[in-house]
UniProtKB/TrEMBL annotation:
InterPro entries: Anthracycline_SecMetBiosynth, Glyas_Bleomycin-R_OHBP_Dase, Glyoxalase_6, Glyoxy/Ble-like_N, VOC_core. It comes from Streptomyces colonosanans. Coiled coil: none annotated. Gene3D superfamilies: 2,3-Dihydroxybiphenyl 1,2-Dioxygenase, domain 1. It comes from the Bacteria. Pfam families: Ble-like_N, Glyoxalase_6. This is Bleomycin resistance protein. PANTHER family: CONSERVED PROTEIN (PTHR33993:SF10), GLYOXALASE-RELATED (PTHR33993). Residues 22-136, 150-265 form the VOC domain.
Length: 267
């Protein structure tokens, strides 16, 4: 079970370790690191510290001395989609990478060491959604949750849950809890009895320019104010604010068009 304790200064939860299969880190690779840091500093109050430079310049976002996310620099000649990528925990990245390939997925980067921080790989599932795998060493992953500016939920948006649920269940050992509905295709993924992520089958509503992809939700105090702030900082709203089972949320994009959601959870 994920060990946790209450932090000394913030009313959130700090994480000592993340159970295998749990989303344990989220990272963004961009072209303009300085501008991206300024955007998220202004939006979430993040500060930044240097991280491992194994794939180029990289920083870790920090809230009250707890690491919550990473931002890295893309090589100038790499014109890849800019996207927040969640990392799923593993006790043995090499074994997980083999399982991904044997279950119809693809490993595009690694496995490789991130200095003394840990070992990682970047993969995609059988229908093309990209995610990372993280085997912790010195860097345990996201250290804080439950306060504004921290990741609060991860959701795979795909064509339908049936096409990928078996893949994630086999590779990461998730227990599944489907939503029983004729018009809502959704499965909640559980690790050690705790919900950690979701799979949402959206069919033809999937954006053509994105395809299947993982969405990261960050907690904020005021969704509507955050959406306005995103626009002021050079981003834009992708889907307008609405109320969901998780809370009030809005999907936005930063100035490099990395899409993410912010949510204010209902009490």
């Amino acid at each position: 079970m994920t060990e946790a304790r209450e932090p000394a200064r913030l009313k959130g939860t700090t994480h000592v370790r993340h159970a295998p299969g749990t989303p344990c880190w989220v990272s963004l690779m961009v072209h303009d690191m300085d501008a991206t840091q300024e955007f998220y500093r202004a939006l979430f109050g993040w500060r930044f510290r240097p991280g491992p430079q194994h794939l180029g310049p990289y920083v870790r976002a920090v809230l009250d001395d707890y690491q919550v996310a990473g931002i890295g620099q893309l090589p100038p000649d790499r014109h890849l989609p800019i996207a927040w990528t969640p990392y799923l925990g593993s006790d043995a990245v090499d074994v997980t990478a083999e399982a991904i390939q044997s279950c119809g997925g693809t490993v595009g980067v690694g496995p490789l060491d991130a200095n003394d921080a840990g070992r990682l790989a970047i993969a995609c599932d059988p229908v093309g959604a990209v995610f990372g795998i993280w085997q912790a060493a010195a860097h345990l992953g996201t250290g804080l949750s439950g306060v504004p500016g921290t990741p609060v939920w991860y959701e795979l948006l795909t064509y339908d849950t049936a096409s990928v649920a078996k893949f994630y269940r086999t590779v990461f050992g998730y227990a599944e809890e489907p939503v029983v509905s004729a018009d809502f295709d959704y499965i909640t993924l559980h690790i050690e009895g705790r919900p950690v992520a979701g799979i949402h089958g959206v069919g033809h509503d999937l954006p053509r320019d994105q395809g299947p992809h993982w969405m990261t939700y960050f907690e904020v105090a005021d969704v509507d104010a955050s959406a306005e702030r995103v626009t002021e900082l050079g981003g834009h709203t992708v889907h307008p604010p609405c109320n969901t089972a998780l809370g009030r949320m809005v999907t936005v994009a930063d100035p490099e068009n990395a899409v993410f959601s912010v949510v204010s959870r209902f009490d």
